[in-house]
Amino acid sequence: MSFRNSVYAATAMSLVTAGGAFAEIITIATVNNGDMIRMQGLTDDFTAKTGHEVEWVTLEENVLRQRVTTDISTKGGAFDIMTIGMYETPIWGANGWLVPLDDLSAEYDVDDLLPAMRSGLSHEGTLYAAPFYGESSMIMYRTDLMEKAGLEMPKAPTWQFIREAAAAMTDRDNDINGICLRGKAGWGEGGAFITVTGNSFGARWFDEDWNAQFDQPEWAEALNFYVDMMNESGPAGFATNGFNENLSLFQQGKCGMWIDATVAASFVTDPEDSTVADKVGFALAPNSEGVEKRANWLWAWALAIPAGTQKEDAAMQFIEWATSKDYIELVAEKEGWANVPPGARSSLYENPEYQKVPFAQMTLDSIKAADPQNPTVEPVPYVGIQFVAIPEFAGIATEVSQEFSAAYAGQQTVEEALAKAQALTNDAMEAAGYR
Amino acid sequence: MARAVTQQRKIINTAAAWAVGLLIFFPILWTILTSFKTEAQAIADPPIFLGFDWTLENYSAVMERSNYGRFLWNSVIIAGGSTILGIIIAIPAAWSMAFVPSKRTKDILLWMLSTKMLPAVGVLYPIYLLFIQLGILDTKVGLVIVLMLINLPIIVWMLYTYFKEIPGEILEAARMDGASLKDEVLYVLTPMAIPGIASTLLLNVILAWNEAFWTLNLTAAKAAPLTAFIASYSSPEGLFYAKLSAASTMAIAPILILGWFSQKQLVSGLTFGAVK
C-alpha cells in the first residue's frame, strides 16, 4: 500500500471511529399508546442534543412482550432499549438480563421518581428500568347520572356503595348500565381486574408457602359479589369486555361507572371522542367494608437496556432524556399539560399548571394508595398488585381468568370456577417447583 | 352434453354467487370503510355503514407517523424473493417426482407436507438462535430464506400436480429430438406449465405477503415488512380502530390490486387439472 493510500485509509478509519463514538443509531422497541407515539414525534429534540439517531419498532402490547422476551432470553441484541412493564422488570433484573440504572446523572434526580414506581421497577433495591409513565386504576363516573339517582360519590367509596349506586343508575330502557368492568380472559385484562378486586376483599393468590388460596372464603365473596353486581347492573356480554370495549361504552354514554386504568381519564374527558367529556367525575377505587386494601393496581411502562448491547452509552442518554423533567416540559410546551406522561415523577404533581388538569390529583392519590410490596391484607411471598412477579404467573393467570370468564358468562358456577382455579394453580406451582 | 339452464336458474345462481362473494369480502370492505371514518364514528353503536363524513385524516396521520415506503419495499422484496427462490428450487424437484417417480416419491411428498404440521412457535427459539449465529436477524435475506422454506412444500405440491397433467410423451419426443435434460425442463416443460407456475407464484406471493409470525418475530427496525406496520397500530389500551383500518388498507392494497389483475390466471391455475 502506498504512503498516500495509507494516509487516506487512516483518515477514513479515524472518521469512522469518531462517527461511531459520537453518533449512534439506537433501536427502541415500544408499545402503541398515546404517550409513546408522542415521544416518537419528539425524537428530533434528542437527536439535536446528542447527535444519536433513533429507530422505532412499535408493536401491539402482547406481540411486543413475546418479541422482546425472545430477544433478551437468547441475547439476540436486536434492540438497544426495550419498553417493559412492572411485571417483567424485577424478573429480568434478577436474571441479570438488564443493565442496572445505578449511574444516572445528578440532574436526572432519581429521587424525584414516585416511590411506588421506583420500588416496582427495582430488584433488591437496584433500579432496572426508568418509568416513562405510570398508572393506577380509579373510578370514573357520570356526574349527571349520579345526581339523577340522588346519590353523591364519596372520595373513597366502598364496593357496597358502588353496587347500590350501580343499581340506581341502571336504566335498561335507555341502554344505560350502572357499571362497566372488565371480564375478558387474559392475565393483563380481566385477570388483572379480578386480582385487585380480590385484594380489596381480603383475598390473595398465595399464602406464604405458595399454596393457592382460591378455596378461601374471601375469594368466594369477591367473585360472587362481582358476578351478582354485573348481572344486576352490567352490560350484556360483560364476560368478553376488556379495556377497549368498556372505553367505547363509556364514551358513548352507556356506563354510569367504570373502574379502570387512570390513563383512561384523558380519553373519556376528550370532547373530540367522548360524548360525555364534561360529565365525568373521579374517585378512588373501592374496598369492601372493613378491608384496608383498595382495588387499585399499579403499572408503569418503563425503558430498560438489555445487558450486552453495544450501544449502552447512547441508550443510557436516551433513557435520561425520555424520562427527565425536561422532557415533561417539552411535551407541555408543544402539546399542553394534559398530554404530558403522568405518574412517574413527584415534581410533576407539585407543578401548579399540572394541578389544573382535572384528573391529576386523583391519579396521584390512586398511585399512592397502591403498594406493590404489600399488596394484600394477609402476607404474601410475592411482589405485585394485579400480578405476581414470577415468570410462571402469566400462564397460570391466563388459565384462571378463562375459568372466571366462563363463570361470568354463566357457563359454570362461581364455585366450580374457583375449584378449577385452585387445582390448576396448585398443579402448575408444583410442576414449577414452588411447592 | 351441457345441461340446459333456464333463465330463472341463471338469475338465482348469479345472485347466490354475489351473496357469497360479498359475505366473504365484507370484512375487507368494512376495514376500508372504517379507514375513512373518524375514531368516534368507527366505534359508533349502531354502526354507520355509509352515512358518515368521509375523511382522509387517518391516512395522513399514518403517513406522518410511519415510513410506509420502507415497510412496503421490504414486503415486496421478501414476498417476491422467497417465491422466486422457491420456484427455482421446486421446478426440478417437482419434475423428478412427476416424471421419474421412485418407490418412495409419495412418502417424500407427504414428509415434506408434514413439516407444515408443526406449530411455528415450536421452532421459534432454534431458528432465532440460528439467525443470531448467522448474523441474519432483522435482514431481508434471512426472511427470504425462512419464508421460502415454509412455502416450499406447497410450491412443490402444486407444481407436482400440474406437471402430472402434462403427457410424458411430449417430453419423450423432445428427448428423441436431442434435447438435453436442461433443455427439456427449461424449453418444453416450463412453457407448457406456465399457467400452473403462474398461479403457484401468485398464491405464494400472497402467502408470503400475509405471513405474520416469522416476519414479526425475526425483524426489528430494518427488515420489518407491512405485517409489522399493521401491528404498530393495534392497541389494547386505546381506541384507534380508524387508524388501524387505514394502516391495514394500505398494507393489503398492493396485494389486492395484484390479485384483481391476475384473477384470471389464479382461477385457471387453481382449477387446472380438475377435469380430465
Automatic annotation (TrEMBL), chain A:
Record-linked PANTHER family: ARABINOSE-BINDING PROTEIN-RELATED (PTHR43649), DIACETYLCHITOBIOSE BINDING PROTEIN DASA (PTHR43649:SF12)
Name assigned to this protein: Sugar ABC transporter substrate-binding protein
Protein keywords: Signal
Residues in the signal sequence: 1-23
Gene3D superfamilies in alphabetical order: Periplasmic binding protein-like II
Main location: periplasm
Family: Belongs to the bacterial solute-binding protein 1 family.
Example of a GO cellular component annotation carried by this entry: periplasmic space
The keyword tRNA processing belongs to this UniProt entry's keyword annotation: no
Protein's organism: Sedimentitalea arenosa
InterPro entries to which the protein is assigned, alphabetical: Bact_solute-bd_prot1, SBP
UniProt keyword Ribonucleoprotein, yes or no: no
Intracellular or extracellular location(s): Periplasm
TrEMBL record, chain B:
GO cellular component, one term: plasma membrane
Domain ABC transmembrane type-1: 72-262
Localisation: Cell membrane
One Pfam family this sequence matches: BPD_transp_1
PROSITE patterns assigned to the protein according to its UniProt record, in alphabetical order: ABC_TM1
Family: Belongs to the binding-protein-dependent transport system permease family.
CDD domains tied to this protein: TM_PBP2 (cd06261)
Species annotation: Sedimentitalea arenosa
Membrane-spanning intervals of the chain: 12-33, 71-96, 108-131, 143-163, 184-209, 240-261
Keywords from the named record: Cell membrane, Membrane, Transmembrane, Transmembrane helix, Transport
SUPFAM superfamilies for this protein: MetI-like
Superkingdom per UniProt: Bacteria
The protein's name in its UniProt record: Carbohydrate ABC transporter permease
One example of a Gene Ontology biological process annotation: transmembrane transport
Entry membrane topology: Multi-pass membrane protein
